[in-house]
Amino acid sequence: MTDLEAVTGSLEALKRCLPSDFHRHFSAALTRFRFVPAAERRATADAFLGWADGRAAEAPRLRAYALFLQGIDRFIAEELQASLALLAEARAAFVERDDPEGRGLCAMLIGAVYRTFGNYDLALNVLVEGFELLRASGQYPVFVAATANSLANIHLDTGHLAEALPMFEVTCAESTRADDFYFGIYGMQGLAKVYVAQGRNAQAAEMLGRALALAERHQHPLHVSNSLTELAAFRLRTGDLDEAERLTERALAIREQHRLLAGAVTSCLGLAEIRGRRGRWPEARALLERGLAIAEELAVKPKLAQVHQQLSALYERGGDPERSLLHYKRFHELREQVEREDGARHLADAKAVFEAEQTRRENAIIREQKAEIQRQNRQLQDTIDELTRARIGRKAKALTLGLAIVLFIFQDAILRTALRLLASDNYFLLLGVKMAIIFSLAPINRGIERHLLKQVEGKRRLAVVESPATA
Questions:
Q1: pTM of this prediction?
Q2: Quick check: 145 and 180 in contact, CB under 8 A?
Q3: How far apart are CA 165 and CA 125, in angstroms?
Q4: Tens of pLDDT along 52-86?
Q5: Cβ atoms of 112 and 146 closer than 8 Å
Q6: Which CATH number does the domain 1-139 belong to among 1.25.40.10, 3.30.1330.50, 1.10.3660.10, 3.30.190.20?
């Protein structure tokens, strides 16, 4: 069964399932959704939202989950601002309906977006919320691993190794529990980086070897090539040029075979560095020119700048200052362009983050206002109910008093009738009949109250039913 068929099957089962089985099917769909090709993934997410829109009135939370599915599609496609807008809308719906799983999923992905934007403080706050919610749910172990991986990498990037290590361990543990190789590999690579920073090279080498073996077992080209590159960088750092060269050549071959072109440029740069260290300048230059051609095809300026920088250094070592200067100038031009574009992108990213957080704050204020209105409505309704009961009580007492007066006026006729029916004129029997009449007034009063209350409640229910139609 292909990934697309698995996702489609899970979503179809979700449409027909009981509420108790919803998260089982949605979790299964999300787990395979990551691996669906881009065009089919987009079409699947959009179709699911179309289906959910048709049922928004009867099941409003379905639309929120459909928005989340669109958000994860845009995130994978690196359309981060579009993803954030969808996630903010979904998150508001989940919070309004107090859906912890939905809130946790949105927090996981919003935190990943913030991390990509470089806003680590906000990312940490959101990711911690998502981690706690998803772990408490137990329904989405793959995305607990994803959240832990994001948290771990933020701690690693900011130099907090003591915080990064347990989060990478959680990533590996949750991935193993979910039988998910994808984040398991990221977790192992992250642990290796922590071990290297701690000077535990033997453990780092073992972890990188395990990550590569897991990627090869699942035959995932992206993870295999990335694992080879990580292991090559480690071998290069420890001075093992032969192994680093062999691993980088393998990574380059896989990336070119599967058209992973941005990674292919990285492999060309790494391999050129190794050849340069060995003094094999023509081979290093050929690799850099090959990387330059791929980078120009991709039009990825940061990669182009890196290639020109290395070409400039190579020509300088080779005693060709003219070509070295030419590539150095091109490197600076590209770097300036990248910095300008990064500045504009950071501004747009900051605006997107501000709008998302503003929406979240506004939603929180609205929720507080709604809660306050509901509290005041309850208090008002309690007061109305008390007044209604008091009014009904007075009315019931008035009716009971009227009945008592009627009984008092006609008591002689009532007593004669009772004695005739009982065929006795005993004094104590007469006294008992009078007491029965007196003590019957309290139950009669309560019965009248209940009857009047039922009439009022019936009118109130009728008003509630008619009000939507009137609106």
A1: 0.72
A2: yes
A3: 19
A4: 988 876 677 899 999 999 999 999 988 888 998 89
A5: yes
A6: 1.25.40.10
